[in-house]
Inverse folding.
């Protein structure tokens, strides 16, 4: 079938300008090109002279077209890459985000999309048919967003999403708003089974004429005091699910898309959005089959993601989501993305391999706790068991609780029941962590009375718990006034803060931020320790991280 891999024909694409049309060939046009080649082989060059002249003219017009060469975009990318498209230290980011978001241990969230109801599809069709105007369409989509926010608040989810009712497809939605893309009217191809999609055509240099998502996300945020994630599709996935120009390296095109996404993240941050998700479900999909080519692909793919996400401050939390993937070959690249939280599709593998692979991540990880591809509603206990399995590999301070993918294809009843059980599972496991933590701290209290308080030599090995990392003892100053860490002690290099729990006449250390101190005595890079990690304190030791 012609529509498996390329659309059937250019004929129905009435919005195509003549120049762009001359550069393209869908299925029917490719067949005609084969006929021309056969005629040339049979009858000679002169028999197809007109067709060859037409082809050469199309190639020449493409080279001259200003839409393919935007010097300003290319200069911006070059400058950003030259300055280093990197965010700040992960521990400093985590501290800034914790202070801003105030999330509980094992925070709950969803991936982005909520069910595309019949009301949404009817409204979209009515807008295309001219039966309703843009204002009425926006009103209906806002009503859908209001209902999705209300549902999440009833379910007591911690980080919310707006549900994406206004989006027909996670790539086409952005392609319709970016310069350098053409969104077809009838360019359908098969995705899988009976599902078809319309990949946009990326033909020129990409730029963002205006904000694409800010109005929708800020409306959703206005409905709740909880953080609402800004939702964007990453540059690699946009390339993977488009027909992409072939006159420059994919890496260059990826950076142009990344620059547009970067500008959107900055606008979302300026609008007060504290959490922004940049999805890259197709990161593994584009990995070349030839091993010799894989390192170069991963280099530019990671670079494009960092270009897209490095424009925001430390206090803005960047999430990403990966699905359709076996992650073993790209796990290092996923860590190199340096997202603050990475959610992955792991439910169908029952966490096997995924949670273990996440050990190398320095940041948050959300291995999906239930499979959204099935209508089955998993029990709270089943999801709690999945979380406990994940905690054997991922420390509790880095573990997030989420489904394994977006909820667009499920119905509202399935989603409501599944998310209710997911939140119940998170609360159950969270309570268990709190009980374990309290028991541990109760046995090792810091007694006030000395300028520097300390305990003896605790049995560290005996205190290991699932999801807990125990660090070497550190020297900790606990002055009574204001219960703050003494920052001026010469041995407190890198020790940032020690939130304390005051209980009766005892001070219990429940969280400490420590640092690995370089052997040469230079400044340490601090890293945060989550509140389910106990750091013992004793005199005479510099702050040190125990290596596993």
């Amino acid at each position: 079938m012609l529509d498996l891999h390329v659309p059937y024909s250019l004929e129905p694409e009435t919005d195509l300008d003549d120049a762009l049309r001359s550069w393209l060939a869908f299925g029917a046009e490719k067949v005609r090109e084969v006929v021309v080649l056969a005629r040339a082989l049979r009858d000679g060059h002169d028999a197809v002279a007109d067709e060859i002249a037409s082809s050469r003219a199309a190639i020449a017009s493409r080279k001259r077209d200003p839409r393919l060469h935007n010097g300003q975009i290319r200069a911006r990318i070059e400058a950003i890459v030259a300055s280093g498209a990197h965010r700040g230290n992960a521990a400093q980011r985590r501290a800034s985000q914790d202070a801003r978001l105030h999330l509980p241990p094992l925070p709950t969230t969803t991936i982005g999309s909520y069910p595309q109801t019949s009301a949404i599809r009817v409204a979209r069709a009515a807008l295309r048919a001219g039966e309703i105007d843009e204002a009425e369409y926006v009103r209906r989509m806002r009503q859908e967003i209001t209902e999705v926010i209300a549902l999440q608040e009833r379910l007591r989810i911690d980080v919310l999403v707006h549900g994406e009712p206004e989006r027909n497809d996670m790539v086409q939605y952005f392609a319709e708003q970016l310069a350098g893309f053409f969104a077809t009217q009838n360019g359908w191809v098969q995705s899988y089974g009976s599902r078809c999609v319309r990949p946009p055509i990326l033909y020129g240099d990409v730029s963002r004429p205006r904000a694409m998502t800010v109005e929708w996300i800020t409306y959703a945020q206005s409905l709740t005091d909880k953080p609402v994630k800004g939702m964007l599709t990453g540059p690699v996935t946009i390339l993977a699910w488009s027909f992409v120009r072939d006159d420059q390296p994919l890496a260059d095109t990826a950076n142009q898309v990344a620059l547009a996404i970067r500008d959107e993240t900055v606008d979302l941050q300026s609008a007060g959005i504290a959490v922004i998700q940049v999805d890259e479900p197709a990161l593994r999909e584009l990995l070349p089959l030839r091993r010799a080519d894989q390192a170069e692909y991963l280099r530019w793919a990671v670079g494009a993601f960092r270009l897209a996400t490095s424009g925001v401050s430390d206090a803005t939390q960047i999430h990403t989501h990966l699905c359709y993937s076996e992650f073993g070959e790209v796990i290092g690249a996923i860590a190199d993305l340096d997202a603050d939280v990475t959610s992955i599709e792991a439910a169908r593998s029952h966490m096997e391999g995924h949670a273990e692979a996440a050990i190398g991540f320095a940041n948050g990880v959300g291995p999906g706790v239930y499979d959204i591809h099935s209508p089955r509603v998993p029990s709270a206990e089943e999801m709690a068991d999945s979380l406990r399995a994940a905690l054997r590999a991922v420390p509790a301070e880095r573990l997030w609780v989420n489904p394994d993918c977006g909820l667009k294809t499920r119905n509202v009843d399935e989603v409501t029941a599944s998310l209710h059980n997911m939140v119940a599972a998170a609360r159950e496991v969270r309570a268990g962590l709190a009980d374990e933590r309290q028991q541990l701290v109760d046995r090792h209290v810091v007694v006030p009375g000395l300028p520097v308080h300390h305990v003896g030599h605790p049995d560290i090995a005996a205190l290991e718990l699932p999801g807990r990392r125990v660090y070497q003892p550190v020297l900790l100053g606990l002055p009574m006034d204001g219960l703050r860490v003494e920052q001026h002690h010469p041995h407190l290099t890198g020790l940032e803060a020690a939130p304390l729990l005051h209980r009766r006449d005892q001070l219990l250390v429940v969280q400490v931020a420590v640092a690995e101190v370089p052997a040469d005595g230079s400044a340490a890079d601090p890293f945060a320790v989550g509140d389910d990690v106990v750091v013992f304190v004793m005199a005479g030791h510099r702050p040190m991280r125990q290596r596993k």
